[in-house]
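Step 1: inspect the first sequence and its tokens.
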Amino acid sequence: MLPVLSSLERVRRSKAVQQAMKDRVQRTGDFILRKLTQKKHIYAAAQSTLDEQRRPAPPLVVGINGAQGSGKTTLVRGLVEFLQARNISTAGFSLDDIYWTHRQQTTLAQAHRDNPLLQFRGQPGTHDVDLGHETLAALLRNDAEVEIPAYDKSLNGGYGDRVPRSQWHKASPPVDVVLFEGWCLGFRALDDQEFARFVHEVRRPGGSALHKHSRKYSDDNLQRINENLVAYEKLLYPQIDAWVYMRVSDADVVYRWRKEQEDELAATGRPSLSDKQLEDLVTRFLPGYEMALEKLDKQGFVSSSVLPAPDTLRMHLDLERNVVAWDHKF
């Protein structure tokens, strides 16, 4: 009897998760539709005052920020279906898709041998920001087919590599919505005073547990990651019109969620990381969260400023990935 009850419980939970994701897609999709309508109206008004030949309307670019394991990929997949069911042409890619090539990442790691945060892909500085800028700019022109980069994390023994250009996805105009997601997409660099305060908390004896992972790294290690964010703010964020923020209150939940994913892989006989490998991987990401989340909550995201406020839909996630609250910011 127990196995039957256990099976029924799994089915019940699966249905609950599916319904929760359906609700999340609906709420987020409605937000995107409102912002798309606003951008179309703004563009049409601007074009009516110009004598030049009407150009294709640019798509709405939506940035999606969410911690690893929070369900970004599932949300994006659901949003694509939601939008395309309404005849809204949608293209999407991830910050992961513009990681440096394996050769470039190796060169980066060698140039910063004293910085463990740059020895593996993940942190700001391990992405080809120029490639991301060029891809978004081409999508915004909306006048020709655009090749969208792709990355395969399984290549080179798990170190990953960008796939050949011949295997990149292609988006054909007109594109109405672009979904661009990433765990650190939207993170902002701390200015000198903000960084000094952050380091003070990191090094303070008995300091907050919110900075415990950053204590493993030197000030220079942390400063390099912080400085790398300047290029993201300058080249990527001004191309993004609206944001979806999957907020977590404590970055430690990332390890828990990733551990669940690895356990599921192991249970099905697929390759998975050991606890030690997983801890090593996740702890390389956590200082980025510790530096960025407070400023993100207080000051919000950098955007194109094309649309009126609020330009951010924020969902608050609990430890089980449930959305416990929604609000609009900035």
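Step 2: inspect the second sequence and its tokens, then contrast the two.
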Amino acid sequence: MNHAAGLPTATAAPPRPLLDVDGVSLEYKTPGRRVRATHRVGFQVHESDRYILLGPSGCGKSTLLKSVAGFIAPTEGVIRLDGNAVREPGPDRIVVFQEFDQLPPWKTVRENVAFPLLASRKFKRREADARALHYLDKVGLSAFADAYPHTLSGGMKQRVAIARALAMQPRILLMDEPFAALDALTRRKMQEELLALWEEVRFTLLFVTHSIEEALLVGNRILLLSPHPGRVRAELNAHQYGMHSAGSPAFQATTQRIHDLLFDLPTPEEPASDRHLATARRAAA
């Protein structure tokens, strides 16, 4: 209400999400039958979100990520990026997988990062090399630009894969359990480096994990998926958690609360003033 004039005040429309996953069901074939991986899953990702898909093994979270990437078509529902339906892979969505063998071994680190830039035909060799070196510097690997992948550790290979993805400047970076195969110390270091890189670049991230702790450390928003077939169980805000809060009583209590939600266990009621997460429970379709 415009109190001075006594007239209603127009309210700004909420910003359109960058990514809109609307009622998406995904299926795949086995020799004997069709299996439903997810059932009518919906969520929205906004610019600069660190959005986590969290759930137990087999809940369809990696399948959802591949569908966002354009590799798998939904059997029901639609996925939109910038308001346009996703129908095929594209350079606006780049995937970093869990495996360390994502890098052609005959190319140097710099060549690996520059290759998709050259393949897109948007950059000349000198421009591609300059951009490759820029992003290698951001992940702390400029000194290894002329090294070959077999000389790198697993964590270093993942940093090269991240640099290669970010060099393409995608609208959204898709990461499918990228640190799951690393040892615990390297995994924590990679989580720290990813967050530091996000603080600098502010890219939009869709990140798959089955680790509750990793979801709270890396994400600012978390979607909980039920066991197979994956359905939305809850969506959580987790802005207040990060490396600084790992191991704190509040962090541990939230970890337990998420575990109970994932596996449909009863959770004690909390007064609204004492909630550590803004939780919006959604009924499964």
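Step 3: confirm your contrast with the notes below.
Confidence is low (pLDDT under 50) at residues 267-285. The chain is about 30% helix and 20% strand.
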